[in-house]
Design goal:
Shape of chain A: elongated
Oligomer: homodimer
DNA sequence: ACACCATGCTTGCTATTGCAAGCACAGTGC
DNA sequence: GCACTGTGCTTGCAATAGCAAGCATGGTGT
């Protein structure tokens, strides 16, 4: 059994918190959790209960499901295929160009992964995990 | 705070277990949980952690989300604007870093839109590059 | 120099999770 | 009658979730 991936969960929460410009205490209060405990969660020292996770998710205004997936608690929903594209298109919070950018990057990632072991002519992607360069190329192209 | 509705969660699990013709011990073993603990959960005496809930859901072959909804941990169906993140996280076709990148860009877009006050679907010539810059900064940070 | 405030971290501590061992009751067979 | 097996429940106990109080550091004035 995988056991929760507490480390990456904590990192993810911290990342989201900083992204939202919250201090640790601010988020802790917004989530109704003590600040030392949140600190420990973020550093991967504690595995928060479902209830606490839910409160944190609410305070961060992200879906609890996202957190659960990050924590390895929730399995990835199969058939994610076109879900990303439709979800992006349906989102009223971003504009059309932003949608197009996101989808282009997404496509590029998928294409890169599909090639995987195959011919890599694009300026040497050293190993299979280096998708960054391909992604960067795409963003350079479309984010201007 | 609301606190999970443990009673109905336990009843629900017991119902599903009987429905599947499992004895308490059978389900306990299948879920990798001790039988007395499962008994207590079903009677609403304990609030199981997210991890345990997940294992039970797997053993019962029902979605963990269903259990979370029953437990009051997950809201029934949240607004569509959470869908993008969830869809990205759930997509098996891209790897973790790619997910992170997409979500970061998405967050940046949303944040930028929030600062502007509203989403203007297609901008005029005045500040047409603004979104591009924000997106680029994010991708430069995470795509190297 | 000093006070003041915000940041995140450490330290005990209590309450709760989750388990191993065992109990009580009901069949079933001999 | 008696053993045996399956059902769910009770009882301690170890591990840990989660908190209140306080510490250390860094900034910002004055």
């Amino acid at each position: 059994m995988a056991g929760l991936n507490v480390g990456s969960l904590g990192e993810y929460i911290r990342e989201q918190r900083r992204n939202a410009q919250y201090s640790l205490r601010q988020l802790a209060e917004a989530a109704g959790v003590s600040n030392p405990y949140l600190s420990q969660i973020e550093r991967g020292l504690r595995r928060p209960s479902a209830e606490i996770l839910q409160q944190i998710a609410k305070a961060l205004r992200i879906s609890a499901e996202t957190l659960y997936v990050q924590a390895g608690i929730l399995d990835e929903r199969e058939e994610g295929d076109r879900e990303v594209r439709t979800a992006i298109m349906a989102d009223p919070a971003i504009n059309d160009r932003q949608k197009r950018v996101l989808i282009e990057i997404y496509e590029a990632f998928r294409k890169e992964n599909a090639q995987d072991g195959a011919v890599r002519d694009e300026r040497g992607a050293a190993d299979g995990t280096e998708n960054g360069k391909a992604g960067r190329a795409v963003t350079d192209t479309y984010l201007e």
